[in-house]
Amino acid sequence: MKYLFIIFTLFLIIKNDKAFSNVLPNDMFSASEVIELQMSALQTNSISNNAGIYQCWLFAHPENKKYTGPFSNFKNMIANTSYRILLDSKKFKTNLLSKVNNVIKFSVEVDAFDNKRYKLIWVLEKAKINDKCVNCWMTTSVTQPQYIGQLN
């Protein structure tokens, strides 16, 4: 029965992109896990429902959302600007740059769909948004992608 449940869960994740949108911010995620979750969601985003972009937006810090606006604005920012390289990327790698109190910075290298490598700085801060997210990591900013080379 346990294996049947696992297979069914994997089927839902593969067949129903909305399953990715059910992960909400909470205190159990580390900062690096939040980036992994956001980047993985963007890698597997479905154009039909933008569940990956929505999943990423769920982990945007409330201060970040003041600038990006509602989900429709965030979706357009990701899909129609230089951040487009985050969608359907081949792979990504994170590297901790600094951690000072409740602010943490990572370098993220992305091997994009266009066979080019880009680098971004991803900044996360602690936030309180509800009872399950009293001290959780959320993204406050991401720099514009910087081209760093062609992939072989």
Report what the structure shows.
The chain is α+β, with helices and mostly antiparallel strands and 152 residues long. It has a single domain, classed as Roll (Nuclear Transport Factor 2, Chain: A), CATH 3.10.450.630. 34% of the residues lie in helices and 28% in strands. It has helices spanning 2-15, 31-43, 51-58, 62-68, 71-79; strands at 91-100, 103-111, 116-127, 136-142, 146-150. Strands 1, 2, 3, 4 and 5 form a 5-stranded antiparallel beta sheet that branches. The longest helix has 14 residues, at 2-15. The protein is globular. Mean pLDDT is 88; it is low at 1-20.
Question: Which structural traits does this protein have?
Answer:
5 helices, Nuclear Transport Factor 2, Chain: A, 152 residues, disordered N terminus, 28% strand, five-stranded antiparallel beta sheet, alpha+beta
Task: Describe the structure in brief.
The protein has helices at residues 2-15, 31-43, 51-58, 62-68, 71-79; strands at residues 91-100, 103-111, 116-127, 136-142, 146-150. It is α+β, with helices and mostly antiparallel strands and 152 residues long.
Provide the fold topology.
Blueprint: H1 2-15, H2 31-43, H3 51-58, H4 62-68, H5 71-79, E1 91-100, E2 103-111, E3 116-127, E4 136-142, E5 146-150
Antiparallel strand pairs: 1-2, 2-3, 3-4, 3-5
Helix pairs in contact: 2-3
What is the tally of helical segments?
Answer: 5
Mean of pLDDT: 88
Strand runs, count: 5
Radius of gyration (CA) equals: 16 Å
Question: In terms of structural class, how would the helical and strand content be classed?
Answer: alpha+beta
Instruction: Outline the biggest β-sheet.
Output: 5 strands, antiparallel
Q: pLDDT below 50 for ≥5 consecutive residues: which ranges?
A: 1-20
Q: Which range best describes the helical content: under 10%, 10-25%, 25-40%, 40-55%, 55-70% or over 70%?
A: 25-40%
CATH hierarchy class name:
Alpha Beta
CA(first)-CA(last) distance = 45 Å
Order of helices and strands: HHHHHEEEEE
- CATH topology title: Nuclear Transport Factor 2, Chain: A
Question: What number of structural domains do the residues give?
Answer: 1
- The CATH architecture classification is Roll
Gross morphology: globular
Strand percentage: 25-35%
